[in-house]
Amino acid sequence: QNVSPRTPTGDVANEDPDPIAQHGSFLTTSAGSRLQETDHTLKAGERGPSLLQDHHFREKITHFDHERVPERVVHARGAGAHGYFEAYGNAASVTRAKFLAPGRTTPVFVRFSTVLGSRGSADSVRDTRGFATKFYTEEGNFDLVGNNIPVFFIQDAIKFPDIIHAGKPHPDREIPQAQSAHDTFWDFVSLHTEAQHHTMWNMSDRGIPRSYRMMEGFGIHTFRLQNEEGHTCLVKFHWKPKLGVHSLTWEEAQIVGGTDPDFHRRDLADAIESGACPEWELGIQVFEDTPEQTYEGIDLLDPTKIVPEEKVPVQLIGRMVLNANPRNYFEETEQVAFHPGHLPPGIDVTDDPLLQGRLFSYIDTQLTRLGGPNFNQLPINRPHAPVNDMFRDGYGQQAGHTGVAPYTPNSLDGNNPLTANESDAAFTDLPVTVAESVKTRAAPASFDDHFSQVRLFWNSLTDVEKDHVVGAYSFELGKCYEPAVRERQVVNLARVDESLAQQVAESLGLPVPDVRGSEQTGDDRSPALSQLGGTWPV
Ligand code: HEM
């Protein structure tokens, strides 16, 4: 009776419902051996040297040495929360996605973030904010990976490394843009006039939110929905905060950044802990799915454009409440992996060239960030739906796959899921006609207008908001050492609005540019990049 073999179910560790959760009255190694003590290394005599034999020491230090995973290449700084989404049911007329059907409630995890700063940077900086939501639907995960600004800097994903390189800390000194030279960012923005729209939102109060709880969210791209009858429509997603949209003033943001760099993550966690659970309503703008995919001349595949809500009102289709903080930041907020291609049946992507590129990028970066191909098995990423992907092995494999034939069809295992799944529950690639059959890198002419919506945004602002925008451009451009960069950006502002350009030019001590030629002809197209040498063509 003294010596008995261990059985798979009869040992101490397996009686613990969560054997790796680190609780209990004694310490063990990671293999479960009880430790006598953990404060001193094993040495040859009290005064050493230390012995290589000390497995516990080596294991402890080795694990510590590997505690850090790479931070996200963008959106590294974030804060997350759990909650639920309640569908109003009215979207069932446009989509067969079950989580939007009447009476459905779906668990969610949301991660808010800044874009450019590193994991340890301050919350209150002027930047775009990420607003990424994972809906754990019964039909698999739906990730709505959006921002708090309704447009994006660039129109084609191939430019993403360029805009991020221009905005990240300078390669020589690793000093962030926000604290020193701003030349590379404004060099990029002034040369890529498609970025003017997003940038003016950044320079407005939207660039310095008061709280994550008080931000709108936007899916930005146009998505395609399909209903039970097979009818399709195009939509843009919007989150509307119940608390309204509020911002910090620039002075407040500076003080907050210095006194409490964790201002936004603290605000979110404190609010939820005290029961003041933030809420948003989800809405959609709905467009007819025509071959042109335009609305009144606005190309719906151009992510630098909005469709004004006065023209196409946002129809509210559900409500989200965030009511629980993560219990462990690393496990949940750091390891969560969003992907714009995680879509349930009834929601599909469009050919927006920015969205198309994102479909590649997220899984690619997560393979490195989360150490191999099995990160969707992590608890925070696991769908609340059965998974039968026939994937096998790989770093971090958690699943105890059985059977000998991980392929289908097979005649050995009896595990033969339908490969041609015609059931209504399956995601179907919609039979959309591909518009152009000639291979080309050219962008459509409908992407050429880079200024009219910047003017629309500027004209929508109150006088106080306009003052803030002038102040922001003046401050940011004032940090540029290169006169040509400043001048070029002020010319861009003149193409938006004369008084804006005049005020910024005056505060920078620059001459007011004259662009009346292009304004009078209503020409809002981007000047050819080849013309952007030392002098700007006006
Ligand atoms: C991360 C939004 C464009 C590549 C993120 C996150 C958000 C976001 C919210 C943070 C997700 C999180 O909290 O974990 C957007 C929006 C875009 C856009 C709204 C345009 C409309 C792009 C493009 C690319 C890209 C064009 C690349 C071609 C990435 C990468 C990450 C990321 C690599 C890090 C993902 C990770 O490590 O898990 N983006 N993004 N994004 N984005 Fe985007």
UniProtKB/TrEMBL annotation:
<keyword id="KW-0349">Heme</keyword>
<feature type="cross-link" description="3'-histidyl-3-tyrosine (His-Tyr)">
    <location>
        <begin position="339"/>
        <end position="362"/>
    </location>
</feature>
<dbReference type="GO" id="GO:0005829">
    <property type="term" value="C:cytosol"/>
</dbReference>
<feature type="binding site">
    <location>
        <position position="72"/>
    </location>
    <ligand>
        <name>heme</name>
    </ligand>
</feature>
<feature type="binding site">
    <location>
        <position position="111"/>
    </location>
    <ligand>
        <name>heme</name>
    </ligand>
</feature>
<keyword id="KW-0408">Iron</keyword>
<feature type="region of interest" description="Disordered">
    <location>
        <begin position="512"/>
        <end position="533"/>
    </location>
</feature>
<comment type="function">
    <text>Decomposes hydrogen peroxide into water and oxygen; serves to protect cells from the toxic effects of hydrogen peroxide.</text>
</comment>
<feature type="active site">
    <location>
        <position position="75"/>
    </location>
</feature>
<feature type="domain" description="Catalase core">
    <location>
        <begin position="28"/>
        <end position="416"/>
    </location>
</feature>
<protein>
    <recommendedName>
        <fullName>Catalase</fullName>
        <ecNumber>1.11.1.6</ecNumber>
    </recommendedName>
</protein>
<feature type="binding site">
    <location>
        <position position="369"/>
    </location>
    <ligand>
        <name>heme</name>
    </ligand>
</feature>
<dbReference type="GO" id="GO:0046872">
    <property type="term" value="F:metal ion binding"/>
</dbReference>
<dbReference type="GO" id="GO:0004096">
    <property type="term" value="F:catalase activity"/>
</dbReference>
<feature type="compositionally biased region" description="Polar residues">
    <location>
        <begin position="1"/>
        <end position="7"/>
    </location>
</feature>
<feature type="binding site">
    <location>
        <position position="160"/>
    </location>
    <ligand>
        <name>heme</name>
    </ligand>
</feature>
<dbReference type="GO" id="GO:0042744">
    <property type="term" value="P:hydrogen peroxide catabolic process"/>
</dbReference>
<feature type="active site">
    <location>
        <position position="147"/>
    </location>
</feature>
<feature type="binding site">
    <location>
        <position position="358"/>
    </location>
    <ligand>
        <name>heme</name>
    </ligand>
</feature>
<keyword id="KW-0575">Peroxidase</keyword>
<keyword id="KW-0560">Oxidoreductase</keyword>
<keyword id="KW-0376">Hydrogen peroxide</keyword>
<comment type="similarity">
    <text>Belongs to the catalase family. HPII subfamily.</text>
</comment>
<feature type="binding site" description="axial binding residue">
    <location>
        <position position="362"/>
    </location>
    <ligand>
        <name>heme</name>
    </ligand>
</feature>
<keyword id="KW-0479">Metal-binding</keyword>
<dbReference type="GO" id="GO:0020037">
    <property type="term" value="F:heme binding"/>
</dbReference>
<dbReference type="GO" id="GO:0006979">
    <property type="term" value="P:response to oxidative stress"/>
</dbReference>
